[in-house]
Write a structure and sequence with these properties.
300 residues; alpha/beta; 6-stranded parallel sheet; 3-stranded parallel sheet; 10 helices; 41% helix; binds NADP nicotinamide-adenine-dinucleotide phosphate
Length: 300
Amino acid sequence: MDATIIDGKAFAATVRAKVAEHVTALKSAHGITPGLAVVLVGEDPASQVYVRSKGKMTVEVGMNSIEHKLDVDTSEADLLALIADLNADPSIHGILVQLPLPKHLNEDLVINSIDPAKDVDGFHISNVGLLGTGQKSMVPCTPLGCLMMLRDHHGSLSGLNAVVVGRSNIVGKPMAQLLLGDSCTVTIAHSRTKDIQEVTRGADIVVAAVGRPEMVTGEWIKPGATVIDVGINRIDAPEKGEGKTRLVGDCHFESCSAVAGAITPVPGGVGPMTIACLLANTVTACCRANGLPEPEGLTA
Ligand code: NAP
């Protein structure tokens, strides 16, 4: 069987186009331009790349992009003061603090200082609690992107068996909550799970968020199942030349796609959806802040 490729790059472009449409409508009907503030502390090269592409795409959909680049040795008090200013600024609808933070800063404290209504990453403890109790919240971008692709592919997810491999706070746990919210029967597997391949082989949907290159192989997958590969791992690629690398997911694409009914590739699957969902969350936050109906299909 050759799996259908779920094209996250194309899907993300449609999400961004929807966001752009809503931004245009907000501007023309209400004179409001959604604003996203991104705070980067330090000079981590991967974070710098992420922040640059977030800023570029924010502007492309017509929103205001505000970047705050702070020294690596910025004090916690100064960072909290900046977040307090952004919380109070009515032109800012979304605030994202790029993680990881330098070691001397308490990540939980910083994230929980963001106004939950502006917490477009969905990591604030209030949003975690709202999602867990099935209430309206800001939903973490990566699992939201996975959910959108699954809904698009399957229509209804109701009654399907879903296994999420990985239990991180930013991907695995919120992913499981979202699937439960769509009435899947959900199992979370992790590093201590016994007979993990038996567990995943019972699933109609496998979401892999592990951080181990190509760990999930075709033997883990039930024929016809849908595989969502969240992993982004850089590995050596001597076949491309000395010192070269390439990106792979947590799933072994060749063997999984021979068995699965549908699969997301890496790159070009979940990755592009994450930034698209950040923009979607910002427009949703902007509508909520202004008491306007929120766009359909852009949140959980
Ligand atoms: P994480 O915090 O390191 O969590 C990894 C999870 O995988 C843990 O729950 C761990 O279990 C589990 N795990 C590790 N080894 C395992 C094994 N051998 N068998 C079963 N489970 C195992 O990672 P994360 O932040 O969730 O990220 C996961 C992957 O997604 C990474 O590759 C990351 O780069 C990628 N990612 C991609 C995006 C995107 O936009 N596409 C966004 C975020 C993350 P324990 O809890 O038992 O240790």
